[in-house]
């Protein structure tokens, strides 16, 4: 089976963490790297959280931190949603390695250039790193196969009546990415708010019995509360 090369980008966050658990479980995906941005909490915290999630799921690929602030907007975080750490709830293993010296955009550009097929980007946080990649390394644009992003909303917002948090954090980055011409699929609030999980589902997931399942169930319980 030819695997699909992907780069995971986010600001974990329980939602991003659970998305990465699912991505790690998919045999058709080859995860090349993980990159982090400021969003739910500061860059230092999202990078630390990413390292802990990677240790939990046994993902041994480069981790790179991106910009510490949006392209133009003031920094905005949301500790009220995921806790002061950005990953409150069950204890996680410590990161196995620190972030690499390369900034996120530089690492993404290098991996995209080295790949023998188009690379898919999966941002689940603000689009700062993806926009930085396109601004700093425009030559890689044609080697990006698709962008699957979590963000936006067609009918309403979740941070203001009109704005969804990931897009609101860095609207200039979002504008650049949406106008890039790269094939793009947006999973906005119109999709994510219909992906419902109930307490009985938490129990069923936790009953799988391994550490990843138990912690995923506890993340869901934390978020539910």
Describe the structure.
- There is one protein chain.
- This protein has 225 residues and is an alpha/beta fold.
- The protein folds into two domains: 4-194, Ribonucleoside hydrolase-like (Inosine-uridine Nucleoside N-ribohydrolase, Chain A); 197-225, no CATH class.
- Helices cover 40% and strands 15% of the residues.
- The chain has ten helices and six strands, in the order βαβαβααβαβααβααα.
- It has helices spanning 14-25, 43-57, 79-82, 104-114, 128-136, 165-169, 171-178, 189-192, 199-206, 211-224; strands at residues 4-10, 29-36, 63-65, 119-123, 144-150, 184-187.
- A six-stranded parallel β-sheet has the order 3-2-1-4-5-6, with helices on both faces.
- Helix 1 (14-25) links the parallel strand 1 and strand 2.
- Helix 4 crosses helix 5.
- It starts with a strand and ends with a helix.
- The model has no long low-confidence stretch (mean pLDDT 95).
């Amino acid at each position: 089976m030819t695997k699909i090369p992907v780069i995971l980008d986010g600001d974990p966050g329980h939602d991003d963490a659970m998305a990465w658990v699912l991505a790690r479980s998919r045999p058709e995906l080859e995860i090349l790297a993980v990159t982090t941005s400021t969003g739910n909490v500061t860059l230092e915290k999202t990078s630390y959280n990413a390292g802990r999630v990677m240790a939990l799921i046994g993902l041994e690929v480069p981790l790179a931190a991106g910009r510490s602030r949006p392209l133009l907007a003031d920094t905005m975080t949301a500790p009220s949603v995921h806790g002061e750490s950005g990953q409150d709830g069950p204890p996680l293993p410590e990161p196995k390695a620190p972030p690499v010296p390369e900034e996120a955009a530089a690492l993404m550009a290098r991996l995209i250039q080295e790949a023998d097929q188009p690379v898919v980007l999966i941002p689940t946080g603000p689009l700062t790193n993806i926009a930085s990649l396109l601004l700093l390394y425009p030559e890689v644009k044609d080697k990006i196969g698709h962008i699957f992003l979590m963000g936006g909303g067609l009918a309403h917002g979740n941070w203001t009546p009109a704005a969804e948090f990931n897009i609101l954090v860095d609207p200039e980055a979002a504008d650049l990415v949406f106008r890039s011409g790269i094939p793009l699929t947006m999973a906005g609030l119109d999709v994510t708010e219909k992906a419902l999980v109930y307490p009985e589902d938490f129990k069923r997931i936790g009953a799988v019995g391994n550490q990843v399942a138990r912690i995923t169930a506890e993340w869901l319980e934390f978020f539910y509360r």
